TrEMBL record:
InterPro entries in UniProt: AA_ABC_transptr_permease_3TM, ArtM/GltK/GlnP/TcyL/YhdX-like, MetI-like, MetI-like_sf
CDD domains: TM_PBP2
Function (record text): Part of the binding-protein-dependent transport system for glutamine; probably responsible for the translocation of the substrate across the membrane.
Keywords from the UniProt entry: Amino-acid transport, Cell membrane, Membrane, Transmembrane, Transmembrane helix, Transport
Domain ABC transmembrane type-1 per the UniProt entry, residue ranges: 47-257
Family note: Belongs to the binding-protein-dependent transport system permease family. HisMQ subfamily.
Name of the protein in question: Amino acid ABC transporter
Record's bilayer topology term: Multi-pass membrane protein
Molecular function in Gene Ontology: transmembrane transporter activity
Cellular compartment(s): Cell inner membrane; Cell membrane
Annotated GO CC locations: ATP-binding cassette (ABC) transporter complex
Length: 270
């Protein structure tokens, strides 16, 4: 009997073939139908906002998550406790609830604190008073996704960094490398191979969770679909197109990430 690994490698991706056939059939249906073509053209206007929200929020969440992970692995007990507190609290709050809290509680609190701290500058005429409406709903949504996903991403970074053998780190210390040099030259290049798959999964998940920003009226794919369906009463056509667009984005990203993982694996084996 052939090993499971060799069987998996030689197995034809029938699921991908079936998905490609369905995607092609949907594309032909959109091209052949004036109604579906109109819905698709309308919904597609939100793709740019969806991509912008996802990319910016994920980049910020990755940077914040890496910082939290380094705090969790630091030699300071206080930093470790702060990192653990942050991760456990944020992971315990649903993304939708966090979105509402940041938008309608966190943003006003931030504006009030900013105005209190900058009162002397405002009185001197250097800056004006910041109003709650000056903080756009788009950026409130991005910050909510950033904070929510940073807790999960920090655990991905922490696990990846801890997967590097301690012997290599000790050898780097013996060579006189600084802490930053050890992380940049020894730890991170090896940890990234462990980090990349779950990090890619989080990115795909954020593409889907970005649809939650529609509850704030941000004009992403879902929000534009909701508005169009409410005005035209074409709920079936509209939400079918919305699902189709999200599937194209997420499946395409998943395939690209798998190809990148295979490439990195081959480079490591060579």
């Amino acid at each position: 009997m052939a090993p499971a690994s060799s069987t998996a490698k030689s197995e034809f991706p029938w699921w991908l073939a079936a998905a490609a056939v369905l995607a092609l059939a949907a594309a032909l249906a959109i091209a052949a139908s004036d109604i579906y073509a109109e819905v698709f053209a309308t919904v597609a206007k939100g793709i740019g906002i969806t991509i912008f929200v996802t990319v910016v929020a994920f980049a910020l969440a990755s940077a914040l998550g890496l910082g939290i992970a380094l705090m969790a692995l630091s030699g300071s007990q206080w930093l470790r406790q702060v990192a653990r507190f942050y991760v456990e609290i944020i992971r315990g709050v649903p993304i939708l609830v966090l979105l509402f809290w940041i938008a309608f509680a966190g943003a006003p609190a931030f504006v009030a604190a900013w105005n209190a701290l900058t009162t002397p500058l405002q009185n001197a005429g250097f800056i004006g008073e910041l109003l709650v409406r000056d903080v756009s709903l788009l950026w409130r949504a991005i910050m909510a996704l950033t904070i929510g996903y940073s807790a999960f991403i920090s655990e991905v970074f922490r696990a990846g960094i801890q997967s590097v053998e301690k012997g290599q780190i000790e050898a780097a210390k013996a060579l006189g490398l600084t802490r930053v040099q050890r992380f940049r030259l020894i730890v991170f290049p090896q940890a990234i191979r462990t980090i990349l798959p779950p990090l890619g999964n989080d990115f795909v998940a954020m593409v889907k969770d970005s649809s939650l920003v529609s509850v704030l009226g941000v004009a992403d794919i879902t929000q534009i679909g909701k508005v169009y369906a409410a005005g035209s009463f074409r709920f079936f056509e509209t939400y079918s197109i919305v699902a189709y667009v999200y599937l194209i984005l997420t499946v395409g990203l998943s395939l690209a990430l798998r190809a990148l993982e295979r490439r990195l694996r081959r480079q490591h084996e060579e």
